[in-house]
């Protein structure tokens, strides 16, 4: 029993110390926003902001538990990787070929239910895309690609 | 106090696993929905011969580009042989080879065309490089990569004669092209499942 108490105490101390790690926040310019190249209906824009922008833009809306470590650390890692794949706030800096391919793969990911990630919709249940929302996005992507 | 410690412990564990587990995206392998093998015999008279657009390509650029194309063929042969590891190695090497091309040696017109394809190509190379566990996802990127390489080869030449082939069945019959160094059809999109399915359209030299 004594052993258990020592181990628990070690974990508790580690947990407390972890709280001093503060990953930097993803909040910066939207200079290269997708809106500058592609016209987006406001309904689609609202869906993207709600379901995608937290990991795929330069501006994340942080929930309160992001202040608890190690949650915040993992979140920062996800956001970093998400932005590398697709960043709606830097979309305008991509070559037009890459923009087109990004849009095509966005559609693929949504159709296959790969995105938004389950770990994201687990805490953001309103980010789960409904059939109507998916259709709306697909229609927008198709019309953009066939401009 | 003990309860609090346990609570803290449980919480940390849950948080850790929850955030970590969802890291991998799985991509369902897609299988062709028909078993019929459409093997189009390549007939010589239908093949058009294409000459590269630019005749004034800097030799250093040409040889740097040749290295990129070699890696493309490496990926292509990996996929045709259903070898995802080979394809991944080709992807990684291509990402490296792309860094070595000196854009300053390009004329403004060449630069425009090259830059248009460069960042897209780089992304496909990286994705193929890190998806050795998911050959179908590698093939999705390979389809788009082939478009980029085709544009570049048509403009700058391939450093060797290259054949442009077409697979009509890939991506739910939307079709996809690929380039090959050999005349014989070896389909990289379906691999061993329908190895000789495809048609030869062009030769670029």
TrEMBL record, chain A:
Family matches, as InterPro entries: Haem-bd (IPR025992)
Stretches assigned to the Haem-binding domain: 12-145
One Pfam family this sequence matches: Haem_bd
Source taxon at top rank: Bacteria
Name of protein: Cytochrome C
Lineage: Bacteria, Pseudomonadati, Bacteroidota, Chitinophagia, Chitinophagales
TrEMBL record, chain B:
Domain of life the protein comes from: Bacteria
Keywords: Signal
Region named Disordered: 23-45
Signal peptide: 1-18
Every DUF3347 domain range: 68-157
Regions of compositional bias (Polar residues) in chain numbering: 31-45
KW Cell membrane (keyword) present: no
InterPro entries assigned to the protein according to its UniProt record, in alphabetical order: DUF3347 (IPR021782)
Full protein name: DUF3347 domain-containing protein
